[in-house]
Target: Transcriptional regulatory protein
Amino acid sequence: MSDQPITVMIVEDDEVAAKIYEQFTLKLEGFQIIATATTGKQALDMLHVVTPDMLLLDIFLPDMNGIDLLREVRKHFRGIDVIMITAANDVETVREAIRGGAYSYIIKPIMIDKFMSTLAQYASTRSQLQQHTTMDQMAVDKLFTKASIAPAARTAENVTTLPKGIDKLTLKLIRDKMQVTAHSVNADDLAALAGMSHSTVRRYLEFLVSINEVTVETFYGTVGRPERKYRWAGA
Model:
């Protein structure tokens, strides 16, 4: 890997999700977060001031579709790579992301190991492209065929160190509340039950999703943002 860090801009209107991406990106050696945007327009304005190596890009933005933003990036900032992170799992959106030249596509709710292995694979690809002026067919094939073996799933048993922002006692309280909840709940429901803020509960729920203790489903209504509902995995 080059001595220069891989610079990253996060484009995500969900503050909790953006913080999670930032936290785990910085756990990988050689990455640096240089900006966070919450709208497409804000991202485009920032790109005229700073030029990251990579965007972590959501599709459901308040002012525009992330696919449209991807097209703008390809048109005006061709040197920037893009990893899509989104709840959109319809074939047409995936097809347009491929056509737009996205490096990878991660479907929410994200698994932290998947997120981190994708970034690590990107760093490896980037390093190989920087180290060579020519490549044979075998080397090219390796770049175009990303690793398909998933890392071992994170579970409660193999998580030995809690990430920054996750407190052991608070985590136990959230676990206890989820275990006695027989039905799916959203972050607001659990926040009221636990007597905590929405943002705190959401952060802990997403961590529990990442270690497979809680499952999550996304529901799309007729108006407003998609709703995420959480359920204890053993319920």
